[in-house]
User: Fold this.
Amino acid sequence: MEPTANFDTQMDAYLLGQMPEQERAAFELKAEQDPVLAQEMRMQRDIVQGLRQARMVQLKAQLAQVPTPPLAGGAFASLSGWQGIGLAAASVAVLIGGLALYANSETADEKPATPEVVAQAPQGTKQAAQQAATQHAVPQAPAASAGEAKTSLPTYTSTGAFAPKAKTETITSTRSGARLGKYQSFNLSVDLPSIAKNTTADPAYNLTPTPPTEEADDQTTLDKPGLGALPSGKVVEVNEIKSKPEVIIRPSDVLSYQFFDNKLYLYGSFGDAIYEVMELTTNQEGRRLYVFFKDNFYTVSKEIHDVTPMKPIADPRLVSELTLLRKRKVD
Amino acid sequence: MNDSEIVELIKRGDERSLETLYRKHYRMMARLIIRNSGTEDDAKDVFQDALIVLWEKIRTGKFELSSKLSTYLYSVCQNLWHKELNRKQRFTTTEHDIGEAPEHDRQERIAIVNACINQLKPDCRQILMYYYFDELPMTEIAAKMDFANADSAKTKKYKCKQELDKLIKSQYSSSDLFD
Assistant:
């Protein structure tokens, strides 16, 4: 069958569902009686199907190029680039503010809520172990300080466990207002204007959490038996960090960890190297613990009770955010 | 950018609107898939497919904005993932009849069509995809592809389609797919 422009138009209208019903029925009847037309129709269906698939592949390839926000890493995960950095800065400011408030809230009779971080040296190095076990409470911040860090941004807690100094440092943040006190020397400014600017520039990003909708409940699991839905990550408001893991170091050739009795056992060749346990708490993700060791960050989960090898976090954005938070804090 | 504006952009064939939706709702859809035995790669795959479903519905005038776009996308993701899980389950529990003649013919035809589409020049491929998938009118195709006018686009589309038909016919004939 030699197609003509008219036939082509007719076939297109048929294939695209643009032919009136009566005309369509007549066209199909004609094809039933004409094997050549039937063959042509089948080929044209194949072509349209192929073109549609090719276009879908093209669109999918375009979407695959779009950077997606990391799923781990709390509220920062929904951001990218300078937005994430800006929010991280803001979060650290909250952290500092929270620290001061937290320190002030302690009474003389109360022990500072420092983590019982113990760098436990291998047997035979008791001296080192004793040195490592030295603990430093968070100094109390003066009362007269700035309180401008009021925000509902994620809270951040860092449990520093630096070996071999084994200086224990606790920085606990709350969502409340803050006094910076001596920690103003950290010089952590809140970079909110840049966040607002970027948010306006790209409407795809929204610093305000999307209001939950009836369908957008994170907890939704498909109603299908045996699917083994993963444990829910319920959105929890965490205002105060109450329990901190005790960290115990054990020598091992393999870098690994386990949680047991609310203690974090770290296995590895820590020696004199510096390590740090960090805690990032967000409303969306809840508490997440990270270990920084030899230029890498590792996620550690309290759910892991067996000795489990630690793998460096590969997500560059999460690494970037943690690096930034750590740098800001150390600075 | 609100939902109505995004729908309008899709109606105009603006693909950046898909990217905006992808970034905006990715985490929500990913959590749905991951909480239901999927991986992040599954989530990307499913959400991309859902966006293409939305794109196609809007492009072909079969979509009405009666709820939030996120609501629609969420339910499409649910359905697609259900289907995928069912497919996986079937795949692991049933034996497949391999080599049935009709299926074999179909696969061979699909392979030929795909190969021939890939032989077309990029502009030919694009104009045919715009016409048969996006169902863009010739005026819009002309605007997107820098043709002088709709008639030029129509002529180009006709020639490209003729070329594709010719390629496929010769392949079908040599593979005995024509009676």
